[in-house]
Design goal:
4 helices; 86 residues
Length: 86
Amino acid sequence: MTYDEAKKHKKELELTVKTLGSILAAFPRLPNGLGSDAVKSSLEYRHAKTVFDKAFADLRAFNALFCRTFHKERRAERKRNCCFYG
């Protein structure tokens, strides 16, 4: 996998996590911001939470691999985009 392919895959994973997070956020909450036990025990919420947790774990694992594998490319890209190195 090249650096550009890895960046594209990372963006796809981030979009998936963001989409699933918005689905979880749509469930009703108590005034203090916590989810009620009735909502948490519903099948719909548990399924959405399981799918979100899996996607988030995939993103975390990919980020670790991405940072280890492409550290030189990431450093060079940051240096190119930084205004101090002109």
